[in-house]
């Protein structure tokens, strides 16, 4: 009877995991945006923000490429047109920010002698008034001592994602110190089921980046690349299906803050890869079956003068119940 009870429990757990996985898959399929097609306000906010941020990134490149991003700009303007046609608010913060980014794109291209009349015509037909929260910012990075003297609020607000780096290599001892500091991330039952792969070999780094979709135009400047992974062996089979990504995401933020603390410039990069891309990365970095990808982080040292996307934060959403 005990054996039958154990078998029944295993089957029940497997059924529960399958149901939970299927439920999430169905929710994701129903609620996530698909390309530029939007069926509610939240999807429009996400898609418009996604596209205008790709334009901001291009504006932030030190080696500016005039006329860049035509396909992305077309997707942005098409989505903004549909947003207005569907009767949504032209005064929404993200819509005004998008107008601001497009105007700065037009002006920046004009500085390089490139005119974009079609884009100018299309933005004139859109309602709304641009705010001044889109585009890029320029700043001089604080040194390590200055960073470590900041209070928590100023420290967090001072961190920026960098897409331009100096040629000076990152001090490996500083990187080790940052990873040690990030180990203080909270985790389920203090299991700390994560690790970092430090890609130092430039040939391997270049091959890995070929399988990541968001580093074009700046990935070649990375001194090193981090891949953060969660280890499924640390998680409870009964009910922790998503816990590796929860703990892994918290660890990723801690790593970014720790890199900032030690004055290492960094940019987080998505590890949401295609099946084939992930196979290539797993092979290149010799990952085992228990390791799941959480995030890539490109790192290097700061250049003398920095510029990056403004990436203004929206008003937080919360509910009190």
UniProtKB/TrEMBL annotation:
Residues 158-300 form the Nitroreductase domain. It comes from the Bacteria. Transmembrane segments: none annotated. InterPro entries: Nitroreductase, Nitroreductase-like, Nitroreductase/BluB. The keyword Oxidoreductase applies. One of its GO terms (molecular function) is oxidoreductase activity. Keywords: Flavoprotein, FMN, Oxidoreductase. PANTHER family: IODOTYROSINE DEIODINASE 1, NADPH NITROREDUCTASE. This is Nitroreductase domain-containing protein. It comes from Blautia obeum.
